[in-house]
Amino acid sequence: MFLTTDTLVELRLLCESGWFKVTEVWLTEKLGSCFMVSRIMERGSSAPWSQILQETIGEGRLNGEALRDYFRPLEDWLRSENLRTGEYLGWSYDGDYCKFSIETAGLQVYGGFYNAAHRHYDVTSFVIILLISAIITVGFNLRWR
């Protein structure tokens, strides 16, 4: 049987003991004795997994909350360690950097941020041509009356 770490962490609700650690020892000792897990697994692919979860634990979808709870000690340690060492998380945005990189690589990008300026000129040109056409049409109509 194969379950991913995030699924195992989410399934912590199923065991009577509550919280557990996802380890090989836990898999061999606890997974077989957990009644609800075996009840879920015995149905196999006879129904959608979300329906089986809904019937078993009353919740039809898995969420990331359990995974976040499981890794919260690591997240807290990383946060405090970054504060202690003065690490900067993320990057500063230079609006031209990505465009420069794409142009340097010889790539063309259609739509999105990089062509917004060109699109503006195209629309402006279209509106100007439309206005000139309208003026000419009105002028010819007035002249022929």
TrEMBL record:
Q: Tell me yes or no: is Signal among this UniProt entry's keywords.
A: yes
Q: Which SUPFAM superfamilies match?
A: Metalloproteases ('zincins'), catalytic domain (SSF55486)
Per UniProt, the keywords (alphabetical) are: Disulfide bond, Glycoprotein, Membrane, Signal, Transmembrane, Transmembrane helix
Q: Where are the transmembrane segments?
A: 123-142
Classification via InterPro entries: Peptidase_M2
GO molecular-function terms, A-Z: metallopeptidase activity; peptidyl-dipeptidase activity
Give GO BP annotations, semicolon-separated. proteolysis
The residues forming the signal peptide are none
Give one Pfam hit by family name.
Peptidase_M2
Q: Which PROSITE patterns match?
A: PEPTIDASE_M2 (PS52011)
* GO CC term (a single one): plasma membrane
Q: Keyword Signal on this protein?
A: yes
Family as reported in the entry's similarity comment: Belongs to the peptidase M2 family.
Q: What is this protein called?
A: Angiotensin-converting enzyme
